Amino acid sequence: MAWIGGEVVDNILIACDDSGIILKVTSSAEAPSTATLLDGLTFPGFANTHSHAFHRALRGRGVGDTFWEWRRKMYEVAEQLNPESYRTLATAVFAEMALAGFTLVGEFHYLHHQPGGKPYDEPNAMGIALVEAAQAAGVRLTLLDTCYLQGGIDRALEPPQRRFADGDVNAWIERRAELRGDPTTLVGAAIHSVRAVPRAALAQVAESTRDAPLHIHLSEQRAENEQALAVYGLSPTALLAKEGVLAQNLTAVHATHLESDDIESLAANGASVCACPTTEADLGDGIGPFAALAAAGVELAIGTDQHVLVDPFYEAQRLEFDQRLASSRRSIFSSKRLVDALSSAGYRALGWNQGGRIAEGALCDLTSVRVDSVRLAGVPPSQLPFALTAGDVDTVVVGGRVIVQNSEHLGLPMLARDLREEIVALFP
Ligand SMILES: [Zn+2]
Question: What residues contact 379, with CB distance under 8 A and at least 6 apart?
């Protein structure tokens, strides 16, 4: 079965050319002997639209009562990484994503320099480590190289934040300009937040990134809204609108604490939103107004962000279930809307407009799940997105190449050991 345009269709044959593009999608009970059998249900590949690979090391270890305490712990991990350890850790994290059914990851990358802030001999050494990690794991990557210039609104950088900063916006533009894409890598950009980039630099970042996906942490915590209001007299969304950052290439991550004006402004400017339901729950951020955003016409994508777990289906289910809890209503997002958030919306938010669907001319990125388990018995195929888990993923294809088969990563058999060793080394 294949998930095509929101419908489940039986006996589908997908033909792909050597460059990884779908040539033809036909209904056929007979496949050539060279074909790969994708048993069960095949979805267009899923996009993990918001990731910080190194946060994975904090799974089960990010204790503390508030977001800000968690952030201090996260800085301790950030301080220890170098290009080599980052490459190893990120390779395992991206492979974990592949096993869970993600074919594309948007890595919101701000860990740029040496501890203390001095650039490496290769100023993009950490970004290049992420590119190599995605290639080793077999997934597509949009490297969202992040501008980070200050420790908070009108505040100097704290020592652990010096690694994140380029000094000024021109230095960030120059360093980012040296990054190169390739057939599976796209170079995007990000503004860390209105906390970390001064108002005077926002328009310049937007100007220099008009032709690339641009992401931002928008309004994750109430405190950052309060600070923006106190200093600028504007919400973070209103500030971005004034500075010309709100545009079709913008994806707002953590659109959690928004007023109705903010929602209208995001919609009117064609910006997308990326929800990160498990992270927003784990960090106690709050439940974003995703039903209202969707009703206003804002496209929603999904990310696992700090990787409290990596499961596209669970994130999508939380998107729906959290809205039910917040509204005392049911059936807010259909299974088609949830799959669109995971596939076409995520691919668009990350600049891969040719992906996220099973159709002629699309990228041949596919995620197949087994549907013969006891747990899934009797579930109508159209409702499977509400019942599946990452553990059901059997085969994953990126650009026509099989990277996961029988729920095993073909390139990285020692995955679990590598991941455990790298993480334990970070916590002496
Ligand atoms: Zn984030």
Answer: 371, 386, 387
Determine what percent of the chain falls in helix, strand and coil, rounding each to the nearest 5: 40, 20, 40
Task: Tell me the β-bridge partners of 107.
Answer: 51, 143
List the Cα angle 109/115/117 in 5-degree steps. Answer: 75
In 236-368, alpha helices (H): 236-242, 260-268, 277-282, 290-295, 312-327, 335-342, 344-349
CA of residue 51 to ligand 1 center, whole Å: 7
In tens, the pLDDT along 111-121 reads: 999 999 999 99
pLDDT digits (tens, 9 = 90+) for 76-94: 888 999 999 999 999 999 9
> How far does Cα 270 stand from its chain's mean position?
19
- Judged by DSSP in three states, 105 sits in strand
pLDDT exceeds 70 at position 428:
no
Rounded to a whole number of angstroms, the CA Rg of the chain reads: 21
The CA 428 to ligand 1 mean position distance, Å, reads: 25
Q: Is the pLDDT of residue 294 over 70?
A: yes
d(CA 357, CA 321): 25
334 C-alpha vs ligand 1 centroid, how far in Å?
26
Positive/negative CA dihedral, 36, 142, 339, 319: positive
* CA 107 to centroid of ligand 1, rounded, Å: 9
Quote the CA–CA distance of 383 and 394 in Å, as a whole number: 19
Residue 294 near residue 341 (C-beta atoms within 8 A): no
Residue 107, token pair as written in the block? 């890595």
Give which of 210, 125, 200, 213 is closest to 169, Cα–Cα.
200
- What is the tens place of the pLDDT at every residue in 207-258? 999 999 999 999 988 999 999 999 999 999 999 999 999 999 999 999 999 9
Mean pLDDT of 154-162: 95
Ligand 1: distance of its center to the CA of 52 in Å? 6
Q: Under a CB-based contact definition with an 8 Å cutoff, are residues 327 and 291 in contact?
A: yes
Helix axes 169-177, 199-208, angle to 10 degrees: 20
Beta pairing partners, 14: 25
Query: What is the DSSP code (8-state) at residue 36?
Result: P
Mean pLDDT (the chain, rounded): 95
The per-residue pLDDT for 213 is 98
156 token code pair: 């100097």
Per the rule left: phi > 0, alpha: psi between -120 and 50, beta: everything else, 297 is: left
